């Protein structure tokens, strides 16, 4: 039997161990932000070329919804949107690059799933685009539904939820599947448009972008009506740095909250004079939020001034002001019937 003094001594050792563990955790908590500040640049992993989300122009300048998110992060950290290095990554490369520390954040239209988060040591931020997997075909094929694709050859990228969903859909509907698996995005799109595949499957937004930007004649192709999956696309970070995860998360929420309150890149300066306490907290007129994240109190103001609110980002990249012209749908703010909803920024 242990004596009271032995028990007390043992308890003391446990408490010391816990204190050291908490201290170690706290020391580790902010290392990503500090590394970015020391480097003077955010390193953002993006797609190798997805219209509307991340695509380099002839001068090598990236544009798209994911790109604007990275610009917003840069503004939150540095007060300016242009301190970003973009690293184009294929689907099989993306998570390894994040795990290894090659990039600080992955903003590459990646689907949030349980096993990715639970087994890869990753954390997904808030959804920035609610999507669903579909199929694109040549109108000459004469099909009107995905259920007409039995025996057709289907182009798909490996190492994606798209590939798994494709197999599940064909199996559950007792359809014969002939996959053409190609890793490189440009190669898979070329294979489809050259007629090597009868259908091309990926997220619906990706299909719309490919049809507009890569098809020899977009009117010769159609996107079938079915959506065979849920594809919540979100930015991704490594586990183990709670402060960095919070910055990712609340940057997205600030963009959504700004739209809900009618604050845009054009009106944000005059909104600094607003009497609304929610607006005052969002824009840093009332202090507290910046300190809580380890950022300047004007971090959200800088984000909105640089890239606009979520609606502005959506409209210019994939919505009504873009070639894709995708409806808001689920990606509208909750006050307009969508799923975009930000917790209180207070």
Which key terms come to mind for this protein?
346 residues; D-Maltodextrin-Binding Protein, domain 2; 2 domains; three-stranded parallel sheet; 15% strand; globular
Question: Your description of this structure?
Answer:
With 346 residues, the chain is α/β, with parallel strands linked by helices. It has two domains: 33-130 and 233-336, D-Maltodextrin-Binding Protein, domain 2, CATH 3.40.190.10; 133-229, D-Maltodextrin-Binding Protein, domain 2 (3-Layer(aba) Sandwich). It is built from 14 helices and 14 strands. It has helices at residues 4-29, 31-39, 65-78, 91-99, 114-119, 161-172, 185-193, 204-214, 242-260, 268-271, 277-282, 289-293, 299-307, 310-317; strands spanning 42-47, 55-56, 62-63, 84-89, 105-106, 122-124, 129-131, 133-138, 153-156, 178-181, 199-203, 221-223, 231-233, 236-238. The chain has a five-stranded mixed β-sheet with strand order 10-9-11-8-12, with helices on both faces. A three-stranded parallel β-sheet has the order 4-1-5. A hairpin with a 5-residue loop joins strand 2 (55-56) and strand 3. The radius of gyration is 23 Å and the shape is globular. The termini are far apart. 43% of the residues are buried.
């Amino acid at each position: 039997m242990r004596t009271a003094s032995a028990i007390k001594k043992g308890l003391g050792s446990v408490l010391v161990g816990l204190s050291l563990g908490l201290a170690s955790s706290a020391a580790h908590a902010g290392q990503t932000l500090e590394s970015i500040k020391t480097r003077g640049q955010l390193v953002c992993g993006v797609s190798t070329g997805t219209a509307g989300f991340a695509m380099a122009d002839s001068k090598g300048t990236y544009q798209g919804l994911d790109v604007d998110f990275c610009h917003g992060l840069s503004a939150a950290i540095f007060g300016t949107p242009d301190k970003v290095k973009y690293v184009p990554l294929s689907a099989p490369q993306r998570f390894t690059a994040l795990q290894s520390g090659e990039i600080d954040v992955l903003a590459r239209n990646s689907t949030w799933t349980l096993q990715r988060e639970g087994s890869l040591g990753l954390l997904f931020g808030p959804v920035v685009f609610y999507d669903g997997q579909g199929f694109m075909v040549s109108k000459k094929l004469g099909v009107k539904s995905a259920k007409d694709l039995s025996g057709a050859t289907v182009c798909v990228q490996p190492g994606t939820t798209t590939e798994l969903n494709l197999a599940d859909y064909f199996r559950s509907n007792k359809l014969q599947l002939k996959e053409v698996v190609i890793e490189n995005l440009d190669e898979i799109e070329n294979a489809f448009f050259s007629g090597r595949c009868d259908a091309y499957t990926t997220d619906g937004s990706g299909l719309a972008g490919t049809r507009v930007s890569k098809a020899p004649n977009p009117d010769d192709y159609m996107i079938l009506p079915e959506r065979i999956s849920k594809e919540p696309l979100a930015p991704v970070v490594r586990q183990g740095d709670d402060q960095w995860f919070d910055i990712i998360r609340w940057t997205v929420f600030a963009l959504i909250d700004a739209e809900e309150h009618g604050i845009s890149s054009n009106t944000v300066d005059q909104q600094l004079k607003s009497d609304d306490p929610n607006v005052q907290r969002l824009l840093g007129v009332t202090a507290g939020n910046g300190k809580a994240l380890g950022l300047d109190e004007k971090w959200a103001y800088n984000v909105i001034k640089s890239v606009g609110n979520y609606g502005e980002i959506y409209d210019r990249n994939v919505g009504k002001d873009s070639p894709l012209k995708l409806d808001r749908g689920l990606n509208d703010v909750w006050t307009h019937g969508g799923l975009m909803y930000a917790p209180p920024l207070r």
